Amino acid sequence: MALHLALATSPATRRVAAALAAATVTAATVAVVSFSGALTWQASANPMGGVNCPVSGVSVGDGDGKTPLKGEQIKNAQTIIAVGQGTGVPTRGQIVAIAAALAESGLRNLNYGDRDSLGLFQMRPSMGWGTPEQILDTTYAAKKFYSVLLTEVKGWEQMSINDAAQAVERSGFPNAYAEFEAQA
After folding, report:
1. For 105-109, 112-116, 120-124, which range has the lowest pLDDT when averaged over its residues?
2. Is 2.130.10 the CATH number for 71-180?
């Protein structure tokens, strides 16, 4: 548009061209904002089929709780929450799962880890968590985490978030989850 404005000879023609340029920019801005809003709404939809998973306020970082989640992390948090909601896991159980995934992988679905650990929760195929393919399926991993929490960890509802996560994960660093309680 700038080239066309420079070539316009009369002031009236330049004003019309400037108005058209402004209208074009405004229309483009509205289109981008509308599209972004649609993507945001779509991203908050449950990958399990329609349950709302509002996790945009979840943050991860160096303990300050101010570093926002990005792309894959948001999707993974949404999956963990959606699986929890879809299977009736109480909110506290969902917080335990998010804290565990924050501590274990930074909410990233890692295809590597200590020894043979994989995925969001750094589950180990050699320890009976599933096959590598299953563990790298975030829905499977969340279901497996919740299954152990709900069926094998007696009294988890009364435990601290750290202790409940540790009871599921059986980490060599038993206090690793405490750092992420507030963020989860």
Report:
1. 112-116
2. no
